[in-house]
Specification:
Blueprint: E1 2-5, H1 11-19, E2 23-26, H2 35-38, E3 44-47, H3 55-59, E4 66-69, H4 79-84, E5 88-91, H5 97-113, H6 115-123, E6 141-145, H7 149-160, E7 164-168, E8 179-180, H8 183-189, E9 192-195, H9 209-212, E10 219-223, H10 232-241, E11 244-249, H11 261-264, E12 268-270, H12 279-300
Parallel strand pairs: 1-2, 1-3, 3-4, 4-5, 6-7, 6-9, 7-8, 9-10, 10-11, 11-12
Helix pairs in contact: 1-12, 5-7
This protein binds nicotinamide-adenine-dinucleotide.
């Protein structure tokens, strides 16, 4: 089987696939213009978030049998269309859960204690001790929206820190140590809200002006899931009014953003979509990509 690696992938994973007999070419800088010319010669492709696999590319590659996305979300791939053409689409669902959960918890501490703002103030040679009275996160209520792999990892860590964890997920009935609630109940009770659901037609814009109106004053919100689930204009207004005391964002409606006004607010801390960017997660992603492709190739071999 011929595999084209279209985005950065761990060397060990590439070596593992080659050792298993796959013919692997690494073109992790390939452009969207080059792809339709190069990809038709391959049976499979590996992508991360950089390479988008849309319908026209799929149509240009009638021999493509498998697409593996190193990562969780399949929003960069027209997965349903690919499957309708008989292409197997796989991802690495759990490889980065712990890393995203740790970033989320880190963000909650940073919001509670204004770690970024205090650092910036000192770098400006200021000693504003009185400006940085914070809160403890222990004893507070965390509302998790989307209680899947990452949501559960966040819930477990937050409970260990003494938080009460409630969650809204219409597809999960019960979970250990977490009270399942309606979205309205979550909005009303949470001191912190953290998003861990995919962006779908249903979830796009689901946290907007009406939802912020239902929260406590001064809540803090973390989005390490997908941009666009929170209406960014409504969040901007809520941060300016103080209804939301602080937001931590790893993901944006547009990446990179073209309008930076939200990011520039003093009560926003942020990162450029780095939730899964740890050595450990990348290692696990690479290993899982290799394992899945090797397995797939074995199944394709005539008995
Ligand atoms: N920041 C990053 O770098 C990064 C890295 C990995 C994953 N993610 C994102 O994190 C999110 C969660 O990942 P995961 O691995 O936990 O996925 P998952 O599929 O294990 O869990 C998602 C959960 O969301 C729930 N859900 C779906 N629609 C919902 C809705 N409308 N309301 C409430 N809940 C809903 C599902 O039932 C599921 O339990 C995904 O959007 C993923 O793309 C971000």
């Amino acid at each position: 089987m011929k595999i084209l690696i279209c985005d950065k992938t761990e060397k060990e994973a590439v070596e593992q696939m080659r050792a298993a007999g796959l013919q692997v070419d690494v073109r992790d800088d390939i452009t969207p213009e080059e792809l339709p010319k190069v990809l038709p010669a391959y049976d499979g492709m590996v992508v991360r978030s950089r390479t988008k696999v849309r319908q026209p590319l799929i149509d240009a590659c009638p021999n493509l049998k498998v697409i593996v996305r190193g990562g969780v979300g399949l929003d960069t791939i027209d997965a349903e269309y690919a499957r309708s053409k008989g292409i197997t689409v796989m991802n690495t669902p759990k490889a980065s859960s712990a890393s995203v959960a740790e970033l989320t918890i880190g963000y909650m501490f940073a919001l509670a204690r204004s770690i970024y703002q205090a650092t910036s103030s000192m770098k400006a040679e200021k000693w504003e001790k009185k400006s940085f009275e914070g809160d403890e996160i222990g004893g507070k209520t965390l509302g998790v929206i989307g209680l899947g792999n990452i949501g559960k990892e966040v819930a477990r860590r937050a409970a260990a820190l003494g938080m009460t964890v409630i969650a809204y997920d219409p597809y999960v009935k019960a979970a250990n140590g977490v009270k399942m609630v309606t979205l309205d109940e979550l909005l009303a009770k949470s001191d912190y809200i953290s998003l861990h659901l995919p962006k779908t037609k249903e979830s796009a814009g689901m946290i907007g002006k009406d939802q912020f109106a239902k929260t406590k004053n001064g809540i803090r919100i973390v989005n390490c899931a997908r941009g666009g689930i929170i209406d960014e204009n409504a969040l901007y207004e809520a941060l300016v009014s103080g209804k939301v005391a602080g937001a931590a964002l790893d993901v944006y409606a547009e990446e990179p953003p073209t309008d930076w006004k939200l990011v520039k607010l003093a009560n926003v801390i942020c990162s450029p979509h780095i939730g899964a960017a740890t050595k450990e997660a990348q290692g696990r992603v690479g290993a899982e990509v290799a394992e899945k492709l090797i397995d797939f190739a074995k199944k394709m071999q005539p008995a």
